[in-house]
Inverse folding.
């Protein structure tokens, strides 16, 4: 009995209703007739959790007994999206819940819309982590996701007079039914203080860390259910709390008020997600967050997951820690510290173990996005870790010098310690030295990583470098988000595709089938109607019927070039206003933007302002006869993505070549039948290879052309001077057409494009406009468009995150599925 898990409730409508009402009564303390929608949502969530519980307990037992190697995914971000729909899908309870609730006079969709998504991530990197843990559970691979339970996730974006204003994301305020706190399993995390040398009983010289303060990490467990396979993995997010030592500590003896303030200080560590996604600021609290969750996670795994008496020399038989970017890289010196200082390992043995337990994924190429922590800050917060990093670096540089005698310049270049602008630790170098493998996230990105970011390292250790192209979970982004397309696919080729996405290939023969095309088109139209009613209710935005739906959704960043999309819109508008073309010549088109800007990123915020001002003007000018519209719903998030992507005709993936590491939105769009207009960048390269040039709108310079132009000297103003259409569009902004005649409002945006344009939007403008003309030509032939659209679905099964996980397993982790 002690080990026997509970059994699942009955898989029947009756059983479900009984469970649901029971949860409503016992959990929410209300009867159905007096319950609020929130009560009903929470009771429904509990009911579904109860169905998963037996499987969760069983998964934990099986995994522990099997003593197999697990994946420890270390990520500062998980952008999970809503949980209920996914849990219903994984348990196959969708129909039963729908019918059961109907019997209670309730509507499942209404309860689902009550859920606030946990937005514990910024964008691509956090969403990727969520897709990966979904795939691992579905593939029966043991994995623990480790991260931070931010009390406030990514800010809620609002617009005031067209400008972005951030509101706190209070995702926990109406209750969070998906988490299981375990305060009894809390762990202590130390900070500050100093180190001292001492001689142990065996006469060995050792070091100990004498920390100055500490906090408690409280684990909150979340279920990660596999799709219909009975496996439920765990996501463990850490929340910071004050320890007893904190309130009673040396700083505040006898001072009650100070003790309470100290508590607040500790809790600050997991208070809020940093909303930057490309420019680390070197903030002390951010480093505290990183060390906090990493220290908790290593402690947790070593204490709990390994049975007593396990020999830590064999740690890599049980775990591989995947470092999601450099954010968790402080785990490397932390494991060294545990092994050497606490477990008494010799340095060299500890290093052998440590090197075999980590692998590192890089998600960027932007130099300013690579984290460097000042040694001053590191030494103050984590003095022992800094010493360990110095020693790792010394030994590494000795190896470099031995391999390249006399090449001191190279040794300097490769040092983990940067000397300018201040002394700091290059976290990417530390990760590369410590990791068994280093991977980029798309073929082009991995190549550039080898050639441009870490060339010395790839020369020294060519075998260390590999690629794993990103992927997305077909459960959330096709099956859940696009139910009618999913039914059509399953009716045509069976339902195996949900866990074996390459089988979408079997749809290829239907691309030319007029009957299938009609159904496919009707589904796109239905998805557009669904989006229309959502945007109307959510934002008061009215989408016109029958438009080409052109969608650009992603974080606002100069390298992603929302400004290029905007110049295209302005140019179309300008041509109609100036009479160069008639409104009736325009392909009816609605452009949808979704984008959050980092709160401190001025240029990004100005661009949001400009998009909103252009939208206001374009949407209300009768000269366009309603044939060009711009919609910018605020607060783009996973929940909105699930409605937007299935409705899109055209997917905008227009970053400057060599800048977007992969992109994952691009994959979601293609899998839902949008055609891509895109540069030769990130995973676009692989999408185009798979779908074929005829079904993809390529434009712009490729990466070598970008490098060449950069080397030769890029001067954006020459494009302005030589291209009348571009000039007219920029002049229109400068002349105040979108700012009631105010010629300064967008001065900085225009000035930047004309005189700097770091991401060469002006250089690619002509080619972009030409590609958009091809889009319109193709869209005019609906049969041809639909055919391409079907082929995009049929040929992009490669981008399932299940495939990414297989690649990680084969190339990096060498773990086994449990069955
Ligand atoms: C760093 C320091 C302080 C605060 C925040 C950060 C930070 C957070 C997220 C920096 C970068 C972050 O994410 C980068 C990111 O999302 N990269 C994207 O990763 C995706 C998944 O691999 C790729 O598809 C995108 O191309 C890439 O931009």
């Amino acid at each position: 009995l002690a080990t026997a898990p509970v059994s699942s409730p009955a898989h029947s409508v009756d059983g479900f209703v009984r469970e649901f009402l029971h949860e409503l009564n016992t959990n929410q303390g209300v009867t159905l007739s007096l319950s609020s929608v929130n009560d009903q949502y929470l009771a429904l969530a509990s009911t579904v959790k109860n169905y998963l519980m037996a499987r969760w307990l069983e998964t934990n037992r099986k995994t522990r007994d099997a003593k197999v190697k697990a994946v420890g995914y270390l990520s500062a971000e998980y952008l999970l999206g809503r949980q209920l729909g996914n849990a219903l899908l994984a348990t196959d309870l969708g129909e039963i819940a729908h019918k059961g609730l109907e019997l209670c006079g309730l509507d499942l969709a209404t309860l689902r819309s009550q859920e606030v998504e946990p937005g514990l991530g910024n964008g691509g990197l956090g969403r990727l982590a969520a897709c990966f843990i979904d795939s691992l559970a579905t593939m029966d691979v043991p994995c623990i996701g480790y991260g931070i339970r931010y009390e406030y996730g990514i800010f809620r974006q609002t617009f005031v007079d067209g400008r972005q204003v951030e509101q706190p994301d209070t995702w926990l305020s109406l209750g969070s039914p998906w988490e299981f706190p375990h305060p009894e399993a809390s762990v202590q995390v130390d900070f500050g203080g100093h180190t001292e040398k001492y001689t142990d009983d065996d006469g060995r010289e050792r070091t100990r860390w004498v920390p100055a303060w500490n906090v408690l990490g409280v684990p909150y467990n979340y279920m990660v259910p596999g799709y219909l396979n009975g496996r439920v993995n765990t996501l463990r997010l850490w929340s910071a709390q004050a320890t007893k030592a904190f309130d009673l500590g040396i700083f505040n003896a006898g001072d009650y008020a100070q003790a309470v303030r100290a508590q607040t200080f500790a809790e600050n560590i997991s208070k809020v997600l940093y909303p930057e996604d490309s420019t680390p600021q070197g903030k002390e609290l951010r480093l505290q967050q990183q060390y906090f969750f990493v220290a908790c996670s290593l402690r947790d795994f070593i204490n709990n997951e390994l049975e007593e008496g396990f020999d830590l020399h064999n740690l890599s038989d049980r775990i591989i820690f995947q470092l999601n970017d450099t954010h968790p890289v402080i785990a490397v010196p932390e494991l060294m510290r545990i092994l050497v200082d606490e477990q008494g390992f010799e340095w060299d043995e500890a290093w052998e173990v440590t090197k075999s337990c980590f692998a590192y994924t890089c998600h960027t190429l932007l130099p300013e996005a690579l984290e460097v922590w000042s040694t001053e800050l590191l030494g103050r917060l984590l003095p022992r870790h800094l010493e360990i990093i110095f020693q790792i670096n010394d030994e590494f540089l000795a190896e470099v010098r031995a391999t390249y005698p006399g090449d001191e310049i190279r040794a300097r270049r490769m040092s983990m310690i940067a000397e300018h602008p201040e002394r700091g630790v290059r976290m990417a170098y530390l990760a590369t030295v410590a990791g068994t493998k280093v991977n980029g996230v798309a073929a082009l990105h991995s190549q550039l990583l080898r050639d441009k970011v870490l060339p010395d390292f790839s020369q020294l250790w060519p075998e260390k470098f590999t690629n794993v192209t990103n992927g997305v979970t077909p459960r959330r982004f096709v099956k859940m988000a696009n139910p009618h397309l999913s039914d059509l696919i399953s009716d045509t080729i069976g339902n195996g595709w949900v866990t074996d996405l390459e089988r979408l290939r079997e749809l290829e023969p239907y691309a030319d089938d007029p009957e299938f095309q009609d159904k496919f088109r009707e589904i796109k139209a239905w998805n557009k109607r669904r989006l229309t009613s959502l945007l109307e209710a959510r934002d008061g935005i009215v989408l016109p019927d029958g438009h080409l739906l052109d969608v650009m959704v992603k974080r606002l960043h100069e390298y992603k070039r929302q400004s290029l999309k905007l110049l295209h819109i302005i140019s179309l508008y300008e041509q109609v206003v100036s009479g160069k073309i008639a409104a009736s010549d325009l392909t009816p088109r609605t452009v949808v933007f979704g984008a959050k800007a980092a709160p401190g990123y001025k240029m990004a915020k100005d661009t949001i302002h400009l998009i909103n001002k252009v939208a206001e003007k374009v949407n209300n000018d009768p000269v366009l006869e309603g044939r060009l519209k711009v919609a910018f719903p605020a607060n783009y998030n996973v929940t909105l993505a699930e409605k937007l992507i299935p409705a899109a005709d055209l997917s905008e993936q227009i970053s400057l070549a060599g800048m977007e590491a992969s992109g994952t939105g691009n994959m979601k769009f293609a899998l839902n039948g949008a055609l891509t207009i895109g540069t030769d960048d990130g995973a676009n390269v692989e999408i185009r290879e798979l779908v074929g040039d005829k079904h993809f709108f390529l434009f712009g310079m490729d990466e070598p052309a970008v490098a060449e132009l950069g080397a030769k000297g890029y001067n954006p103003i020459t494009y302005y001077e030589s291209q009348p259409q571009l000039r007219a569009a920029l002049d229109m902004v400068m002349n105040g057409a979108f700012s009631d005649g105010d010629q300064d409002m967008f001065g900085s945006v225009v000035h930047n494009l004309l005189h700097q344009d770091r991401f060469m939007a002006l250089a690619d403008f002509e080619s972009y406009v030409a590609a958009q003309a091809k889009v319109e030509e193709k869209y005019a032939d609906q049969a041809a468009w639909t055919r391409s659209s079907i082929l995009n679905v049929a040929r992009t099964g490669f981008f399932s995150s299940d495939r990414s996980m297989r690649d990680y397993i084969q190339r990096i982790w060498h773990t086994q599925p449990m069955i």
The pocket of 26M is lined by residues 122-125, 128, 274, 276-278, 280, 286, 363-364, 369, 441, 470, 660-664, 682 (CB under 6 Å). The chain has three domains: 1-66+86-116, 67-82+117-469+806-813, 543-790. The first strand starts at residue 70 and ends at 74.
